[in-house]
């Protein structure tokens, strides 16, 4: 299967790739109605690429049944309004089962989370992704790369074996390393998605990225869209004005090893009355002292 088959998926990756939150009800279960409402808010806000079971969706804190539920809700709400990139991961059989479930529902792509294992060899990284990608040759596959040791030629090796590997969510916080990795793998061969969201989008776009992931988009879709419009037109001063707007919010998310990455997004949504602030361990709700600042930032975006 040639990469030309995946042109719609490639186009969907060259955009704001939204990572929706997973809202929880008072009894701790996934709040289906609120989840649907938040997805509709993203779609109504102009977002056309959704990633259920991403890290902002608390992927690792969800049960297998909940991950399936989140995928189903997202595909249903997206309909023909958005492309769906389903997050899959854990052990190979679990990831393959999740990818096949996504295919059965009609999703067009899967994002493969960085393998969670204390010992990841580069060849083993290829083997892991190859096992998943080859199980769903009809789907576009997007590795989520957080491993700074991984080299671009390994990605090229994977794509030689699995031509459905069409894009990369690159989340190593080093713009120079990203530029080199993309060129070693094949700059034009893949769609490069800046996997560290708006703070890194301008520098990664300057090196060849054409899309970026976003958790902030849950709160203010227009802000994220303003940034990608500026980047697409090559207007870096305009992009950096958006960067200044979102800087403090993203600093709060990134502090202490990103301890409050999801927490701050849900706190902002809670301040707007859109969902409960509840997160699951090992995340934790924001202390009372920090809530007012997050609310003020969200209110300042004129949502």
UniProtKB/TrEMBL annotation:
It comes from the Bacteria. The keyword Lyase applies. Belongs to the DapA family. SMART domains: DHDPS. InterPro entries: Aldolase_TIM (IPR013785), DapA-like (IPR002220). SUPFAM superfamilies: Aldolase (SSF51569). It holds the Pfam family DHDPS. This is Dihydrodipicolinate synthase family protein. Keywords: Lyase.
């Amino acid at each position: 299967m040639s990469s030309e088959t995946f042109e719609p998926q490639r186009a969907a990756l060259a955009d704001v790739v939204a990572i929706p939150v997973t809202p929880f009800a008072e009894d701790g279960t996934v709040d289906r109605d609120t989840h649907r409402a938040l997805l509709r808010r993203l779609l109504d806000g102009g977002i056309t690429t959704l990633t259920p079971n991403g890290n902002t969706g608390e992927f690792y804190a969800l049960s297998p049944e909940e991950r399936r539920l989140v995928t189903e809700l997202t595909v249903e709400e997206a309909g023909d309004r958005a492309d769906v990139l389903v997050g899959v991961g854990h052990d190979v059989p679990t990831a393959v089962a999740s990818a096949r479930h996504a295919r059965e529902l009609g999703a067009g792509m899967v994002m493969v989370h960085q393998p969670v294992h204390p010992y990841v060899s580069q060849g083993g990284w290829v083997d892991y992704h190859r096992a998943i990608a080859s199980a769903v040759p009809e789907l576009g596959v997007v590795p989520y790369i957080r491993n700074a040791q991984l080299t671009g030629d390994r990605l090229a090796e994977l794509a030689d074996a699995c031509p459905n590997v069409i894009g990369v969510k690159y989340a190593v916080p080093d713009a120079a390393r990203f530029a080199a990795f993309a060129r070693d793998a094949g700059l034009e061969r893949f769609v490069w998605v800046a996997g560290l969201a708006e703070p890194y989008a301008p520098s990664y776009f300057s090196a060849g990225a054409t899309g970026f992931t976003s958790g902030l988009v849950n709160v203010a879709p227009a802000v994220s869209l303003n940034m990608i419009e500026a980047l697409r037109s090559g207007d870096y001063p305009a992009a950096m004005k958006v960067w200044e707007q979102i800087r403090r919010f993203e600093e709060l998310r990134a502090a202490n090893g990103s301890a409050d990455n999801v927490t701050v997004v849900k706190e902002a949504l809670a301040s707007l009355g859109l969902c409960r602030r509840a997160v699951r361990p090992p995340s934790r709700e924001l202390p009372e002292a920090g809530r007012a600042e997050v609310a003020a930032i969200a209110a300042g975006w004129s949502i």
